[in-house]
Amino acid sequence: xxxxxxxxxxxxxxxxxxxxxxxxxxxxxxxxxxxxxxxxxxxxxxxxxxxxxxxxxxxxxxxxxxxxxxxxxxxxxxxxxxxxxxxxxxxxxxxxxxxxxxxxxxxxxxxxxxxxxxxxxxxxxxxxxxxxxxxxxxxxxxxxxxxxxxxxxxxxxxxxxxxxxxxxxxxxxxxxxxxxxxxxxxxxxxxxxxxxxxxxxxxxxxxxxxxxxxxxxxxxxxxxxxxxxxxxxxxxxxxxxxxxxxxxxxxxxxx
Length: 255
What we know:
The chain is of the alpha/beta class. The chain contains 11 helices and 8 strands. It has helices at residues 15-28, 43-47, 57-61, 90-95, 103-108, 128-136, 148-163, 183-191, 208-216, 220-223, 228-243; strands at 2-6, 33-37, 71-72, 78-81, 117-121, 139-144, 170-178, 199-205. An 8-stranded mixed β-sheet has the order 3-4-2-5-1-6-7-8, with helices on both faces. β3 and β4 (78-81) form a beta hairpin. α1 packs across α11.
């Protein structure tokens, strides 16, 4: 089982739309996918039309096992660990735990037989929860706006990983909400190779279709598969597939 974390220090960069659409693409290709909504806003939970049920913070408290909170979605091969406002205390819960950095790994470990891929929709910020995410994930997927401050935030994430010697963690970023009418966006798009191997080639255009996800409560490819942004997410998923450490197993096809 591989674990991807869609993460950024900044809010409003498109983490939820990225997590939901990547989960849709992976599950549509036959991967058994668990999307874990870790943000107290519960945006992924809302977009996938799931009611949280039991308070999700009980999972971090160790009061309930993950398999008892997992909810099915409307889509084959795609389940959800939901979130709600009770998760706002996640850092306080982890602060009082021994080996708090390993807590998310501990929660996910029993699910390794049931899923090929876990995608975490992460809240913004540098927190104890963030550190636990870094230790649980095989790869950070960092949606990055084409702006100077967003690129600075990306560098901080890369530097943090190096300084804390999180050896297995791989970081891959992509430019999100790209508006080719803006000179700065075009400049950063043309220079993104200078950032290094962490910056992927795929980029997602700024599009009203992405905003419709919250209105229709569906992944973008589900209601508009031919939209440029939907196809761009497909390209992004293909690039991530190739970059996942150790790779994912191809689903078995019946004879």
